[in-house]
Amino acid sequence: MAHLETRESALDEQAGQIRSAMADLAARLGELDAEIENLRVTRKTLQTVPRPGPAAEQPPRPEMPDHPAYQQILTAPADTDRPMRARDICQALDLPTGLFARPGT
User: Fold this and answer.
1) From CA 19, how far away is CA 25, in angstroms rounded?
2) 3-state DSSP call for residue 23?
3) Among residues 76, 81, 80, which one has the least CA distance to residue 94?
4) Model confidence over 59-74: pLDDT tens digits?
5) How far apart are CA 81 and CA 105, in angstroms?
6) Which of 104, 105, 83, 101 is nearest to 92 (CA)?
């Protein structure tokens, strides 16, 4: 009889361990099923989104003039430490500034 009780107790313990492992596995399985379902919904949603068309071509950049005055105009502001107005650029390039006179001056 003692042997039967010992064997029954051991089997009850093993069954409890297996039930606990099964509960852990069932919980993990539920998490995996939920994640799989989320991925299915995501895939289905993405399949309904229209694909973008070909990228619009950028218009060609205008070519820079190769006239020397153009380069002088671009470099004039680099030679100073303050912003320049059109009048200042004309003065820096020794150009007439009469067009920039304020009315009444």
Assistant:
1) 10
2) helix
3) 76
4) 788 887 888 878 888 8
5) 27
6) 83
